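Feature request, filed as a ticket because there's no other form

It would be nice if the structure record came with a short human-readable summary line next to the tokens. Right now we just get the raw output. Example of a typical job, pasted below so the devs can see what we mean:
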Amino acid sequence: MAADFDVHPDGGLRCGRKLSDPGGMIGGVYEEMAPPRRLHGVARCVWRSASEGPKRIVPDGCVDLVTGDGEVFVAGPDTTAWSSLSRPGAVLEGIRFTPGRAAAVLGVAADELRDRRVPLGELWGRAGEAVAERLLSGEWSLAEAVGSRVSEVAPPDLAVAELIARLDAGVGRVGEAVAGLVRGGPGAAQVAALLAKTAPEGARIAEAARLLARAGSEGARIAQAAVGQGKPEAAHIAQAAALLAQGKPEAARNPETIAAPSHPGAGPAELAARRVEDPAASVAVSERRLRRRFVQAVGYGPATYLRVSRFQRAVALAPHIPALAALAAAAGYADQAHLSRDCRALTGLTPRAYFRRPSTVDVAERDRLRSA
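Raw output as currently delivered:
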């Protein structure tokens, strides 16, 4: 599914309260609300739509769980626009998952849902049919249905989450966003800092981050010295540093992995030195792994996500910047022709046709939400 976004002062995107297509909806009402607190980090927003005709849905990098008009289905991440057709007056409700989190909740890789609308019964079998029946009967709300699975959801892949955040922040190229996430040094330290907030081994991971921030083999030598002095937790810290340098934050937060080096006879600090001093092989593998995990979590690769995110930024800015050349520059495009190419690819329309009509959003309400 798709939605528009407001722009944070820091350049990031957030869920807004407006139509997903300035010129694509023929009448109707569309509104978005913040998700319940128990869905924080899993859902971006809860929405409700009552249309009087077809509307054009453009890609936004998200997956939605939708109910209404006698159906319950999952709308996968789109790579191009599609038309939503429902009975005039039919009300649809949905939960829009945070980019990269739907796969963990739904139990299926997001790329398997790409450009698809999948009935919940087909996705979950009999359990899905039972949930769909409860949703359509009004016994359950969408928030309750998703909330019933949250306790079983794995924590976010923090490397993927960081890459999504960088792409949403408006980097020009994927390479700029990936830099630092696939090798040791400050990038790995940033991932470690995020891990420190969620993992039980947070103190060890944070210390590993400090070691890595000292750069390369110097960090390994410090780890070796710490082990030699018999400092508590030093071996675990060194091993965590090695795993982070290899681009394996999940392994770094796993005490069993930290306690069992994969090279018999090699101490943690020695292993750290090997991996930090000779990163070439691990960097290539780590980058491939990061991209593969990104596709599984988001539904397509970083390049496509960047294209979608940049266009959504243009959609959010369009009401305030009517000139297409200025809009292209503000949204991060190389030039107006770049915006035109992406607009045609993602919406099937030229920018002039797509942005020709203002959204029917209640501007006063949108501005009130922005200032809240």
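Something like this underneath would help us a lot:
The first strand starts at residue 5 and ends at 7.
The CA atoms of residues 109 and 331 lie 30 Å apart.
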